[in-house]
Design goal:
Length: 529
């Protein structure tokens, strides 16, 4: 049983279906000319910071040399740093970035507030390269993964109001939330001067549910990921007033009180509150590194802007709550969560769905009340149809944004009439169709150091695998191990399913997630009707 997965071009872990199966695509990626990388060009070089690379490099080095910090009592996980023009906020930002000296990260998530776009999402960059005068930083393949978890999305359409200074810049073919946004961009040169070998995951934040965003971010975290939240504090108040307001704000931040950070307290209130919810989930603590305002870095004190550098760390005595290799700690299989009655209900629901959509093109209704909590929980699932033991359709979603029962209906409908590999199920076939439902655990990142390490950490027969390489992605359910028991062949076929050469998982920079399933089928209760 090899499921179909809708390949959303640049995001993976949302509702899924459609893809090639074991056969290689008609035109392999290796046979097609490589597309030119998409580059996010610098928007505020020469405005917020120097455009000349040598001048910019010297300025940051001077800021870092003057910064003073104390060692943290744990592992650094996140920073809050300001994003004003470097002469004003650079010294404070350097206090935070100085902590990166001697550290190494694979991925840096930079979250800044939107100043020019009307957004109700976290706009994840779909660029391949993020450019500054100091050079190019590759965008992490985790960007496409995060974009699959609401409220994040891959550069959603939005209204962009061009800033006045943008008239000095060439107008791009497409304006997105990130085109002119300075809040993310100004942090990148500091990262380039303090880290090497990292990839960036840029996010421009509009208004969204911060708790939901924290849970989504948690899904891509590991010990090699750093989060940088870009925000200034109070805006254009007298010096003494700013000192009082900003002290209250940083106290709320350091006490991990997201509800105490008001919209007017910081322009980056949304990413700050998201980080605070995440810190509470992860067991992190916060430490204030620096608190000043533009009155301290310039001579003007009648209307100042506040700046803070704050570090978040996992205390040394507390185990880090993060994504760990499934092979190291994952259960042999998820404990059975669904009772015999729950299983019968879902299988009957899928059966009614197939019958109704094939014969009347209608979907059965799910009662608004009275269902067991397990049936209304948000869970990913796949519905597999077979006919005389041969696959007839398989559609599913890795991540749900609604009740399980509703997604069983949708996936049963899609498997019956929308799987592109097969003709729609015809009425005479209905009674010959057998149904299996697979309910998924939440996909978790799998950490590995090399292709061979990846092979060692996969667990045939236990793990479903999500493979993400750039903008290509595909998944196999754990049941596919029955047909492809060799891990190397399993990943070769999965690469082909994603539209790539078989060995792409070895030669590229893949992101791998694993999950487990609780699967049940009609034959287990003695009937397929």
């Amino acid at each position: 049983m090899i499921p179909s997965i809708r390949r959303r071009p640049r995001s993976l872990l949302g509702p899924l279906c459609l893809a090639a199966v074991l056969a290689a695509p008609a035109a392999r990626a290796a046979d097609r000319p490589a597309a030119a990388p998409r580059v996010r060009e610098p928007a505020v070089a020469g405005l917020f910071y120097p455009q000349d690379p040598a001048t910019l490099s010297r300025m940051i080095e001077q800021f870092l040399a003057a910064a003073r910090t104390e060692p943290l009592p744990g592992e650094l996980r996140a920073l809050i740093c300001p994003h004003a023009g470097y002469p004003f906020s650079g010294p404070i930002a350097a206090t935070g970035f100085r902590l990166l000296a001697g550290r190494s990260y694979d991925t840096v998530v930079v979250m800044g507030p939107s100043h020019y776009a009307a957004l109700h999402a976290g706009s994840v960059s779909d660029a391949d390269i993020y450019r500054t005068p100091l050079g190019d930083v590759p965008v992490s393949p985790k960007a496409a993964v995060l974009a699959g978890f609401p409220p994040f999305a891959l550069e959603p359409s939005c209204r962009v109001e061009r800033p006045e200074w943008a008239e000095q810049r060439p107008r791009p073919a497409r304006e997105t939330a990130g085109t002119w946004e300075h809040s993310v961009e100004v942090e990148v040169p500091f990262l380039q001067k303090t880290l090497t070998g990292f990839k960036i995951l840029p996010v421009v934040c509009g208004d969204f549910d911060e708790e939901k965003a924290a849970r989504a971010l948690r899904r891509i975290l590991d010990d090699r990921t750093l989060i940088v939240v870009s925000s200034d504090l109070s805006h254009y108040t007298p010096y003494a007033t700013a000192q009082r307001i900003d002290r209250l704000t940083v106290d709320a931040i350091c006490q991990l009180k997201p509800d105490a950070v008001g919209d007017s307290d910081a322009c980056g209130h949304t990413p700050i509150r998201t980080l605070l919810y995440l810190a509470k989930l992860q067991g992190w603590q916060a430490r204030l590194l620096d608190l000043r305002n533009s009155g301290d870095t310039s001579e003007k004190r009648d209307a100042v802007v506040g700046y803070a550098a704050i570090a978040f760390y996992a205390p040394a005595a507390t185990p880090t709550v993060s994504a760990v290799p499934a092979a190291a700690t994952g259960p042999a299989a998820p404990a059975a969560q669904y009772s015999a009655a729950d299983r019968r209900y879902l299988l009957d629901l899928a059966r009614r769905t197939v019958r109704d959509v094939v014969t009347t093109d209608r979907l059965p209704a799910v009662p608004a009340e009275g269902l067991a909590p397990e049936l209304t929980a948000e869970r990913g699932c796949f519905v597999t149809l077979t006919k005389r033991g041969i696959l007839r359709g398989c559609i599913g979603n890795l991540q749900a944004s609604g009740p399980l029962a509703q997604f069983v209906i949708e996936n049963a409908r899609n498997a019956a009439i929308r799987d592109p590999r097969f003709d729609p199920v015809a009425p005479p076939e209905i009674d010959q169709i057998a149904i299996e439902i697979s309910v998924l655990t939440e996909p978790r990142p799998l950490a590995f150091s090399s292709p061979d390490d990846l092979l060692r950490k996969l667990r045939p027969g236990i793990d479903g695998v999500v493979l993400q390489i750039g903008r290509h992605g595909a998944t196999y359910l754990p049941q596919v191990w029955e047909q492809i028991p060799d891990p190397t062949e399993f990943l070769n076929h999965l690469s082909e399913k994603a539209g790539l050469p078989p060995t792409a998982w070895r030669a590229s920079d893949p992101v791998v997630f694993t999950y487990q399933v609780e699967a049940f089928k009609e034959s287990e209760r003695g009937t397929a009707n």
